[in-house]
Amino acid sequence: MATLAEIRARLLEQDNRQAGGGQKQTGDNAVFPFWNIPENSTTVLRLLPDGDESNTFPWKERQMIRLEFAGIKGGDESKRVTVTVPCMEMWKETCPIHAEIRPWFKDKSLEDLGRKYWKKKSYLFQGFVVESKLQEDSVPENPIRRLIINPSIFNTIKGALMDPEMESLFTDFDNGTDFRLTKTTKGQYADYSTSSFARRERGLSEVERAAIEQYGLFKLDDFMPKKPTKEEVDVIYEMFKSSVDGELYDPERFGAYFKPAGANFGSNTASAPAAPASRPAPVATAPASRPAPAPAVDEDDVDFEESASPAPKKNVEDILSMIRSRKQ
What pTM, to 2 d.p., does this model score? Predict the structure, then answer.
């Protein structure tokens, strides 16, 4: 386990460097849906280190892109669907989608469309739910839960890490600190800006230590998206172009690689190349209305951008015509 000093040093290194310059579907219901906690309530979490001791941080950063389609070709062609795919920049490689959309931000008329396809960051943690008013339909036997934290909450956690008054790493079994996740509202979106770490340190209880002994800690990398192959990167880019063009999601072209959550196309994908056996398809993000949690929650089946900009209202055909004319 990395020390607090080592983590602070690595964070500073990353900040200085930045200033200078398919998803596994386990179905184990381990993801705690904190976004469903009641408004004006506080859930107490105890974050834990990564089971992979080679990971300096107690988290893994995910970068995902959401591709929206007007419907599914040959199926429900009027119900919008979203397919979530990994961004290659997560592996420090060139992402063809971002290479395409970066110039869009130089034109104010294309900024909203660029934001729509910009990668969404989230951070995978694990820990105990010490106290919460959320009533879950199904609670896993293993009390160690996976937590997919959005950037606003992550910044609060990172800020506390860099606070010199925090003397011990918050994941320390003996001298760690509980995290108080508070949900309020700001406008029409959930707001977690008043969340903070507890003022007092707390050693893990006997029950919590026994759970770690019995179940072990998750290796967070096991729940990260799989790095796409060259062929899959090409498919992702084709899906992106299809999405921008306002086309329907085509199961024959994409179904063997990436598909919306819960989609079952049967024989529609028979002519498509088979997807790699070890690669489960990424899943679509949940709608903004946030329905009640399903018996199992997959890591990508969540919309983490509570304060995301609304979808652009400009007609997509007008935008496409503008882009094409400039290329010509």
Answer: 0.75
